[in-house]
Amino acid sequence: MGYTCFDLEEADGVAHVRLSRPDAYNSMVPAFWSELPEVIGELSDAGRVRAVVLSSTGKHFSAGMDLAVFTGGAADDAVNPGESIKETGRQRAALRYNVLHLQQSFSILEQARMPVLAAIQGGCIGGAVDMVTAADCRYATQDAFFCIQEINIGMTADVGTLQRLPKLIPEGVVRELAYTGRRMPAEQALVHGLVNQVFDDHDSMLEGVHEIAAEIASKSPLAVHGTKETILYTRDHTVEDSLKYIAAWQTGMFQPGDMAETFAARAEGREPAFDDLGAIRRGL
């Protein structure tokens, strides 16, 4: 199906999801918040791809939340339907669920069964930082920069940046960026570990990130899935709890088929061929 904010291509086990509103700096209009979880959720549930490249078009990766969301009108009604409720307590309670909905639109990147690799050019601003911090890995062009824009418009970032960024880079650096709204250029992001690699330009970045995605896609998708699950669990739990988690995971999920295929392929001088994860069905 067609999307307002994204283009989607699939080839050789890799899905390429592109933000596709370059004339508007890929700002996040209301449709964005439903389309992103739909695209990523469908790819994850279908189990036919083994890695996702999330990239963008135009001068900037994304300018973040579209201004229409803040200034009212149809966009505001779509994102904040609770505003139609007149009583203050009920209105605020409804708004809380709307914020949770926006958060989930990015959490879907973490919850996806396959790794998501973000390829970032130009500005990665406001909500775009929330988005890419939920990806598995981040890559950038020389001209890329990151900005926690919310503080510059008088609000606290609330869709994931302040929760995930301190898990990725030093807390003191996060505080400075969040308190000042200053830009972090790509080279500084590389030094602090926010991005894995900096490329000269957009084309070389996409080529490089697709190579990494292809390498991931060549591995056992079940083993990659288990690795992602375990890393995410470990991030938020103690070492002891995480060791118990992987022991339980292996008890249920580890089967010898993919390992046997790996050894057979090596003995026969060929690349291993693994089954896809396969589709999962939600609900009855």
Q: How confident overall, as mean pLDDT?
A: 93
Largest sheet: 6 strands, mixed
Order of helices and strands: EEHEHHHEEHEEHHEHEHHHH
Structural class: alpha/beta
Record keyword descriptors for this entry.
6-stranded mixed beta sheet, 2-enoyl-CoA Hydratase, Chain A, domain 1, Lyase 2-enoyl-coa Hydratase, Chain  A, domain 2, 14% strand, 3-stranded mixed beta sheet, 12 helices
Task: Outline the secondary-structure elements.
Elements: E1 6-11, E2 14-19, H1 30-46, E3 51-55, H2 67-71, H3 74-79, H4 88-111, E4 116-120, E5 123-125, H5 127-132, E6 137-141, E7 145-147, H6 161-164, H7 171-180, E8 183-185, H8 186-192, E9 197-199, H9 202-217, H10 221-235, H11 239-253, H12 257-268
Parallel strand pairs: 2-3, 3-4, 4-6, 5-7, 6-9
Antiparallel strand pairs: 1-2, 7-8
Helix pairs in contact: 1-4, 10-11
Protein architecture, described:
By secondary structure, the chain is of the alpha/beta class. It has two domains: 6-217, 2-enoyl-CoA Hydratase, Chain A, domain 1 (Alpha-Beta Complex); 221-268, Lyase 2-enoyl-coa Hydratase, Chain  A, domain 2 (Orthogonal Bundle). It contains twelve helices and nine strands. The chain has helices spanning 30-46, 67-71, 74-79, 88-111, 127-132, 161-164, 171-180, 186-192, 202-217, 221-235, 239-253, 257-268; strands at residues 6-11, 14-19, 51-55, 116-120, 123-125, 137-141, 145-147, 183-185, 197-199. The strands form two sheets. Strands 1-2-3-4-6-9 form a six-stranded mixed sheet, with helices on both faces. A three-stranded mixed sheet has the order 5-7-8. Helix 1 (30-46) links the parallel strand 2 and strand 3 (51-55). Helix 1 packs parallel to helix 4 and helix 10 packs antiparallel against helix 11. The radius of gyration is 20 Å and the shape is globular. 37% of the residues are buried.
